[in-house]
UniProtKB/TrEMBL annotation:
Cytosol aminopeptidase domain span: 309-316
UniProt family annotation: Belongs to the peptidase M17 family.
Organism listed in the record: Pontivivens ytuae
Record keywords, A-Z: Aminopeptidase, Hydrolase, Manganese, Protease
Example GO biological process: proteolysis
CDD domains reported for this sequence: Peptidase_M17
Gene Ontology molecular functions: manganese ion binding; metalloaminopeptidase activity
Keyword Hydrolase: yes
Protein name: Leucyl aminopeptidase family protein
InterPro entries cross-referenced by the UniProt entry: Leucine_aapep/pepB, Macro_dom-like, Peptidase_M17_C, Peptidase_M17_N_1
Pfam (any one): Peptidase_M17_N_1
One term under GO cellular component: cytoplasm
């Protein structure tokens, strides 16, 4: 990652962030020539509008950026990142900002705007550099940005170059960078080590399934466990997806990518926690060895599961990973997965739902989602739907019929594998930005992990 943030500069161009009602006062303090330029260009402080003021020698004396009204700003985030991409290479600093502007958050957006996925074609992100605002922690911003952009890069990489082995390579690199320990259980060893559902989902692929188990930190510290769904490509299995539904399935490891990104943040910031990262990495493929609708399997936890749709595979691999995580009674367990289309129907691509029985955790996540500009919305573990995941012939049904409350029934399924964790939350992510926005290019998306980071920090404060 190339840093677009610098600690200081002797030749930085000033940026003045102005709300509409502050434009006149700012204008009054400028030269007659600058006033005429502002008037001629009709700069009124509307959100996202920008204007460079020319200096006496024809150079740029400063840049104005419209901050808009609170009502309009609420529609999006990282507003200043829109300016970052318009500016020529050089150094800039925030000279004026209204109280409603969070300079550290805008600096993070500026840094994120430098990302361009260029593995297969030349692409260029922002090159303008920003002096980190006073009071903002440059090291913290960069650590968060590295984790966020790692998530995006992993999701953006197509499945031919991001299979279970490549996901293992990414976690191996992360472990090496931070002195963590990584244990990997692959192929038929999954059966020997009692991870039958992970093996079942991945056995049809020529790329062996595996469970990645990273640990870091002092065992005496708060036990934080992250579990991420690592389905590197999802054909749907024998319940084959139509082509239109398969096109974005490289992002079905978005839960794993987000968990990896959050783990990167935690370790880079050297938080005093005992971190565990669990990634069941598989490809849901079709072959003579594929699991079938109607099959019944016994999970690691001992619960039997009837398969009524092979395209509901994510909850299966997570079940074994959650059961393993739960065995050591973590203080906080966070599960991330691109799990259901129902979540997107309910809340769209930008607002991931989360599920928890812990009221304190729910409140902390909701608050952090707002303060960190990292949207999340709580949905219920609704007990009235428990019967829908109980088929009678087995303990659990992986895909209840009827099509209603799919995100909730999937969450209820996962909760059956968590009994001992002191606090547990499940996040149903989309993992993708459908259309480019400031600091968020079209493609893989980090979702919720900055809010989760804040909650982890609050729990150790």
């Amino acid at each position: 990652m190339i840093s677009l943030l610098i600690s200081d500069s002797d030749h930085a161009t000033d940026i003045h962030i102005l709300e509409p009602d502050a434009v006149d006062a700012f204008r009054a303090g400028r030269s007659a020539a600058e006033q005429a330029w502002i008037d001629a260009n009709g700069f009124s402080g509307d959100l996202g509008k920008s204007l460079a003021l020319p200096g006496p020698d024809g150079d740029m004396s400063c840049v104005l950026f419209g901050w808009g009204t609170e009502k309009v700003r609420a529609r999006d985030r990282f507003h200043l990142a829109a300016l970052a991409g318009r500016l020529a290479e050089g150094d800039y600093r925030i000279a004026t900002a209204p109280a409603s502007c969070n300079p550290a958050q805008e600096a993070l957006g500026w840094q994120l705007s430098g990302y361009a996925f260029d593995r297969y074609a030349k692409r260029k992100g922002t090159t303008a550099r920003l002096v980190v605002p006073e009071g903002a922690d440059l090291g913290r911003i960069e650590a968060i940005a590295v984790g966020a952009l790692t998530t995006q890069r992993l999701i953006d990489t197509p499945a031919n170059d991001m299979g279970p082995q490549e996901l293992e390579d990414a976690v191996t690199e992360l472990a090496s960078a931070h002195g963590a320990t990584l244990d990997v259980t692959r192929g038929d060893a999954l059966l020997e080590q009692n991870f039958p559902l992970i093996h079942t989902v991945g056995r049809a692929s020529t790329r062996p399934p595996r469970l990645l188990d990273l640990t870091w930190g002092d065992a005496a510290h708060l036990k934080v466990t992250l579990v991420g769904k690592g389905v590197c490509f999802d054909t749907g299995g024998l319940n084959l997806k139509p082509g239109a539904s398969m096109g974005l399935m490289k992002k079905d490891m978005g839960g794993a990518a987000n968990a990896i990104g959050l783990a990167s943040m935690v370790m880079a910031l050297k938080l005093p926690v005992r971190l565990r990262l669990l990634i069941p990495a598989v490809e849901n493929a079709v072959s003579g060895g594929a699991f079938r609708p109607g099959d019944i399997f016994t999970s690691r936890k001992g619960l039997t599961v009837e398969i009524n749709n092979t395209d509901a595979e994510g909850r299966l691999v997570l079940a074994d990973a959650l059961a393993l995580a739960d065995e050591e009674t973590p203080d906080l367990m966070l599960c991330m997965a691109t799990l259901t289309g129902a979540a997107r129907v309910a809340l769209g691509p930008e607002l991931p739902p989360f599920f928890t029985d812990d009221e304190a955790l729910a409140g902390a996540l909701s608050t952090a989602a707002t303060t960190e500009a990292d949207p999340l919305w709580r949905m219920p573990f609704w007990p009235g739907y428990e019967g829908q995941i109980e088929p009678g012939i087995a303990d659990l049904d992986n895909a209840p019929s009827g099509g209603m409350a799919g995100a909730i029934t999937a969450a209820l399924f996962l909760r059956r594998f968590v009994e001992n964790a002191a606090s547990f939350a499940h996040f149903d992510l989309y993992g993708w930005t459908p259309a480019a926005k400031p600091a968020r290019p079209k493609g893989g998306a980090h979702q919720g992990i900055r809010a989760m980071l804040r909650v982890i920090e609050e729990r150790i404060a």
